């Protein structure tokens, strides 16, 4: 009898473990990869160059030392109009992604277990919404240890870009644009919601999601368009250290236009 | 049949082992909430209290590891006998004897607070420790480095494993442990509380007169049995805000200039010095400020400017009665509760 007991226990444990590992590597479902490729105009972005190889619309030379942003609330639309929503967990452990130029692994967001079909557009948010900020201590990409949490004024920096330019009058010729701000207040014009949610079309192309296929959607973020867009044409010569929601309102208006789907790798 | 019973028994046994492996010695704790208080703001569903979690939070609260120098703990500026503020210090006293610019606030009844600090910059209890920890004038340490120090400690790794079932200590568990301890710091057993809850305590005629005066002259800001409405107001303590703009520093709104959070008055007998910059040392000085010292500026609270006259009309005997009443808010059990003590 004892023998039966232990064999049964082992069998149950083995089943439990194999079920776990299946879930973890996601082999049971179809996947799609969103690749975020950060560029400066026609050049690939290289961080921490010793010179200032890039030039903005005001002919001001610059380099970039830090570029990072939060992607969340990802939705994929199929040809038949149905929408797949990437699941969000309230503790921040799923659905929030931190793309950091310095961390190559973070450039690819792999969405797992999505229904098969031909996808035609993606919608996502740059930012961390109030629902999430009001949850208290978060984990994963939203862990305050990632350095994007404002300890003096609760909330996350959604998009941070730092670098240097000879025209910049701040210490070390450094510029810093920290875009955040997740709540509006009708009584306070300085409390701004800079969260941006937008849709990028695959422009007639489709991403075919099916078994043994891992289509990749190649999204480009252009630093030059972030500095010059419908919101503002940024000069590094003045007001180049921006750390409050209000101060970043105009540059946040450039965010949507700086992202574009460049092409799709069907597999 | 017999085999079936044994089979289901063994399944249950395995499931029970898997579900309870780290909770076996970690019992859940339910806080006793005072009946004269409103519903708490803190959502315990996101951070269920346990014996091990509270104990761990207390240890962290009293550990200098949270500061760069290893000496300045939370408990350094938040001392229990002073209702968890820093007696005798006008402004917070940080590493290398650096001085902050604001008076450290007493800590109690935090789970009823919507916002934290004098300027309300922090909107969740979990995030409170980040502010003093990373302030160069206070603990001058980084979250990253604190986590590194904790992960290097066998003791803390075991304690976090027991409380949260994790092998690596991350900020989530670190912040939640501190919240678990500070959530338990409830002060609701003063003589006043026992009087309003009909638990047999009586107030003297002078104290009752003070209470009546308090209700008519003070309680529009120091509201409810939390003794604060949680709002930000310019109480006329100064009209010069060059050194500290108060709430404006968080909202960038000039109409918030010089506004500070209305503090609770619980244990106010022991929380001196008073005001955001600790400039007043006694309750007499505080009442004198409200009767005769209110300074006019653009953002002065309208309640303190009636018919063009600044301040609150108070006679000397009224002030004395109010102070007598304020002392009924002293909660001796809270100030001496061993569960909260460093040693």
Q: What overall form of chain A do the CA principal axes indicate?
A: globular
Distance between the termini of chain B: 58 Å
Structural class of chain A: alpha+beta
Radius of gyration of chain B: 23 Å
* The CATH class of the largest domain in chain B: Mainly Alpha
The CATH superfamily of the largest domain in chain B is: Cytochrome c-like domain
The tally of beta strands of chain A, per DSSP, is 15
Strand order in space, largest sheet of chain B? 1-2
Mean pLDDT of chain B: 92
Which sheet architecture does the biggest sheet of chain A show?
10 strands, mixed
The CATH topology of the largest domain in chain B, please?
Cytochrome Bc1 Complex, Chain D, domain 2
**Which structural class fits the helix and strand makeup of chain B?**
mainly alpha
Contiguous runs where pLDDT drops below 50 for at least 5 residues of chain A: 1-5, 10-28
Number of domains of chain A: 1
**Helical amount of chain A:** 10-25%
Spans where pLDDT lies below 50 across 5 or more residues of chain B = 1-7, 9-24
Q: How many domains would you count in the coordinates of chain B?
A: 2
- Indicate the proportion of strand residues of chain B: under 5%
